[in-house]
Design goal:
0% strand, mainly alpha, single chain, 233 residues, elongated, MetI-like fold
Length: 233
């Protein structure tokens, strides 16, 4: 087996598992970027998505000024290609972390790159909630917070899991792009040690690992979404 790998994947074996260029290191870096940016971006996405639904015209706490402001912020950030966003917000990254390079620094553009995408999906998911349930809660004297947590988020939880799955998959793609410009992870391995050095075996294995990560996220997301659907019924 080892001779087979050495023959067909010599450059893959040469990188090893540990160390700065190891596969284990790259995998951990990708998971690190994905986890923290998904957490921060998810929190922002939920907040902005809820605010869009609540403050929109006809919403339970409509406010035209705040709706227009939040809507424009989400739309503008979502319209900026990620590679341009990296350069555009570099002063903000420097202000927050005092550096523009490294794993921690890339979390800022990753978070700002993914949360508008997630916020729009949250908005769509919450708008699909049965209006009759919202009206029933209002007639019983429920507060805005009660409706947000007990109606909107509760009724849309299966859909929220689905869109979270899609968002995390998109985020893995962004981490690969971030890695391609030196942030580390599987993207960096694929480009720096594969493509740039004409080591096709490294590029192929890095790509396969990204695909495996995506498939794992998809399977887990589908499992939880289906479970919540069955509970809802």
């Amino acid at each position: 087996m080892l001779s087979f790998l050495n023959h067909y994947l010599p450059n893959v074996i040469q990188l090893g598992w540990t160390g700065d260029t190891g596969w284990g290191t790259s995998l951990v870096q990708t998971l690190y970027m994905t986890f923290w940016s998904a957490l921060f971006g998810g929190i922002l996405g939920i907040i902005f998505g809820v605010l869009l639904v609540v403050t929109k015209p006809g919403g339970i706490n409509q406010n035209r000024y705040w709706f227009n402001l939040i809507d424009k912020v989400v739309s503008v950030l979502r319209a900026i290609p990620f590679i341009i966003l990296l350069a555009f917000i570099s002063p903000l990254t420097m202000l927050i972390l005092h550096t523009q390079i490294g794993l921690n620094a890339i979390l800022v553009p990753l978070t700002l790159g993914i949360f508008p995408f997630y916020a729009r999906q949250v908005e769509v998911a919450l708008e699909s909630v049965d209006k009759g349930k919202i009206e029933a809660a209002q007639s019983l004297g429920a507060t805005t917070w009660d409706i947000i947590f007990s109606v909107y988020l509760r009724e849309a939880r299966a859909e929220l899991v689905r869109i979270s799955t899609v968002t995390i998959i998109s985020l893995i793609g962004l981490t690969a792009m971030a890695g391609a410009i030196g942030a580390g992870g599987l993207g960096n391995t694929a480009i720096s040690y594969g493509y740039n050095r004409y080591n096709t075996d490294v590029t192929v294995v890095a790509t396969l690992l990204v695909i495996i990560l995506i498939l794992i996220v998809q399977v887990i997301g589908d499992h939880f979404a289906n479970g919540l659907n069955h509970q809802h019924r």
